[in-house]
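Provenance and format

Records in this collection were gathered into a single text stream. Each protein contributes a sequence line and a token line. The two records reproduced below are adjacent in the stream.
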Amino acid sequence: MSGVKKIVVIGPESTGKSTLCEQLALHYNTVWVPEYAREYLNKHGSSYTYDDLLTIGKGQVEQEEQFSIQKGKLFIDTDLYIMKVWCEFVFGKCHSWILNTAATRQYDLYLLCNVDLPWVKDELREYPDLKTRKRLYKHYLDIMINQPIPWIDISGTYEERFQKAVSAIESRLK
């Protein structure tokens, strides 16, 4: 494995994942891996099928691998756990490739973004109601609790989230 420390930022939509990745990459003078689903859906349209989620998952991993050749810290906006949640939440099932590959990916820290930020509408977001967003958050929380990689809950204002993330990175990735 290269000398890169991989920090994944996950959580439901509109929880500040991309903003946090961008802030952290700037702070640590490094790069971040954008969410491939956004690129894919902007290109192919906002409607998607079960099979599209497999294609998106594979694209996310490929994109992550392209960025992983560097040294230092790499911030990753979503991973295959997001594809797992999305498959199960929307379609009630998940591709075995996503499940198997998610179980073998190597990361150093997860930052789980909570749903306490105000909803920001955009053409790709689907669940503006807080009740659904809390249900989705619980799915991510269950995954974090049941996987071996260290993680921290990120909540509060954008600035508080940034400070919590930096603190977690500094204390856990020495």
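Adjacent record:
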Amino acid sequence: MITLDQVRRALREHQAVAVEAPEARPAAVALILHETPEGGGLEALFIRRAQRADDPWSGQVALPGGRRDAGDADLFATAVRETREETGIDLAGAERLGRLDDLYPRTPTLPPVVVRPFVFALAARPPLLSSDEVERAFWVPLLRLSEPAVRQEVTLTVRGTERTFAAYDLGGDLIWGMTERILTPFLELVARGTRG
């Protein structure tokens, strides 16, 4: 079971890799953790994006976040603003645990963005108020993601082409793509810290 202290230690020692990509639009997401009082370990917040024709990630399970606006002081501010807009959660009082490596989409048909993930911890699970961009927001125990049947490869048709992706199949909710590429290295980073 992963604890908040283990995540703090792992991120304190992690040197996040920044990507310089002038042609790509910067974006940020928030990996928000909450330690359950029942001793069930940590939960992470995910959203299912609403079905929208103008959203290249329409209908996918994601972390709260989006592209940087001109009014955002930095990408941290982007993550905080987007989380508030999409879920109603104000991260101003949250514990800022650290940052993960920047990443690009791997599919050339997606817009050129570089995503910077920030990790936060909340002392209590707040009420969720989904925006019209979000079909729903929900918590997933990190312990669930380590179950053997949950981690698998899936073949999906993306923009008319069949491709195979690493994924977490939560039975009705599939975490794949950029969200899986953020989550898996994060879990591996914390696991390495607990072994060391």
